[in-house]
Amino acid sequence: MLAPFSLVRAADIRSAVSALGEDSLPYAGGTELLLAMKMGLLTPATLVDLKRIAELNDISVDGARLRVGAGATHDEIARHPLVRTHAPLLAAVEERVGNARVRAQGTLGGNVCFAEPRSDVIALLIAVDARLVLRSPAGERDVPAADFVLGPYW
Fold first, then answer.
1. φ and ψ at residue 153, rounded to 5 degrees
2. Can you give the pLDDT at residue 150?
3. Which pLDDT score, from 0 to 100, does residue 72 have?
4. Kind of pairing, strands 59-62 and 46-49?
């Protein structure tokens, strides 16, 4: 059983960032987040739903850089022609994540933020020197994937 929480449906990144705070968590796929909530390991007062933010689901090429939005699901990434062309190893790893439900619902951002120690996705991102774009009320910054993960689940 989940503890009670409120849900904010963010329409854009600015409103999502504004809604996030000490007792709130972002939510898109929820495959790992909801399990942690069911086990009582996380009890946020508010979940901020990011699913409707188109920019977070975008997969594109910007110059020589492949950009994959945090809200893109594992299936979307694995099947996207730009990923298959510009990052075939990422496509191969993504098509083997979890099970069919996790691939269909789970997101790249959720996988990275959860910092599951057995995650092939974050291990690959670190190995290829991927960079993450982080946004907060203070602005935007670009961080190496290796510097984002501080340890298991952290």
1. 60, 20
2. 86
3. 96
4. unpaired
Residue 135 is predicted with a pLDDT of 92
CA distances from 132 to 8, 58, 69, 83 (A): 24, 14, 10, 16
DSSP 8-state assignment for residue 42: -
Q: Are 59 and 67 in contact (CB under 8 A)?
A: yes
pTM of the model: 0.90
Q: Decide: 43 and 3 in contact? Cβ < 8 Å.
A: yes
pLDDT tens figures, 69-100: 999 999 999 999 999 999 999 999 999 998 99
Are the beta carbons of 49 and 10 closer than 8 angstroms?
A: yes
∠ CA 27-11-83, nearest 5°, is 65
**Strand, coil or helix: 97:** coil
Helix (H) or strand (E) holding 88: helix 88-94
Helix or strand run (H / E) with residue 84? helix 81-86
Given a cut of 50, the residues of the chain with pLDDT beneath it are none
Q: What's at 107, amino acid-wise?
A: T
